[in-house]
Amino acid sequence: MATGLARLRAGADRVRDRLSRTRSRTRSRDRAHSLGPRLRLPRTRRARRRLVRWTVAACVVALLPATWLRLAETDRVRTVRSVPREPVAVVFGAGLWEGRPSPYLAHRLDAAARLYATGKVRALLVTGDNSRTTYDEPGAMRTYLVAHGVPRAKVVLDYAGFDTWDSCDRAERIFGVRHAVLVSQAFHIRRALALCAAAGIDAYGIGVDEKHDVTWYAGGARELLASGKAALDVVVRPDPEFLGPHENGIARALAAPGSVRHP
User: Fold this and answer.
1) β-pairing, 100-101 with 96-97?
2) Torsions phi, psi of 124, nearest 5?
3) The domain containing residue 87 runs over which residues?
């Protein structure tokens, strides 16, 4: 009797062990499926070398547009003092904080106001986002410039500058800008110059200096990604999101009398 009970207990223990191992394997498979397929490195030296070559090639291809922008437009980047005189300055939007220009945008507008005050340009085209009634980037830019001494009649608004290509293409096709000084941060100005050149604008650029903080490095990293789209825009030259009829705002601003008004 005792021997039979011992055998039954031993059999029950074996069944429990098997169930425990089965559950453990099931949990492991479920965990592996939830994590997705694991990345397996090549086993042979030749395959690993091929992987390295492809990785390096992909990095080179990814950096080509940024390198092109860096080399192609360097001689067009100037300072407020050294930039040639042009009819118009194009100021690109950089966001609003509670309805007012962000620090980066304010610095761009300060540089544009200096261009006008020193006679380097005779009119300003501010281009930004006004896709919502509660967000008027060009209007805030004009308010800032007027408060800093630029006559209101000398500031023209482009309400559909949703990205750099749209701003450049609309400046040429809608507002008739052929020669200009572009104003942006240093990490963005070369892309703006390349895109405006592709849009038909002969331009120089003012790269506003900034403290190399987290925002600056984030902007630089964004430029690496945006340079690929810029290269595509140069090749394809798509229509802007909103095109519309020709406007003579720049012609009126150039003809309007105006002098620097010191705030």
Assistant:
1) antiparallel
2) -125, 130
3) 70-255
The residues pairing with 89 across neighbouring beta strands, listed in sequence order, are 124, 181
pLDDT, mean over the chain? 81
Q: What is the mean pLDDT of residues 16-27?
A: 59
The answer to whether residue 81 is domain-embedded is yes
Residue 222 domain flag: yes
> Is 246 among the domain residues?
yes
Q: Which pTM does this prediction carry?
A: 0.72
Task: Provide the 8-state DSSP code for 183.
Answer: E
Per-residue HEC secondary structure of 210-222 comes to CCCCHHHHHHHHH
Separation CA 106–CA 43 (nearest Å): 55
C-alpha angle 104-143-148 in degrees, rounded to nearest 5:
75
Q: For residues 116 and 126, is the Cβ–Cβ distance under 8 A? A: no
Q: What is the pLDDT of residue 187?
A: 86
The CB-side HSE value for 241 (13 A sphere, CA atoms) comes to 14
Number of domains in the chain: 1
Note the pLDDT of residue 93: 95
Q: How far apart are the C-alpha atoms of 260 and 160, rounded to whole Å?
A: 28
In a domain, 20, yes or no: no
Q: What is the CA radius of gyration of the chain?
A: 30
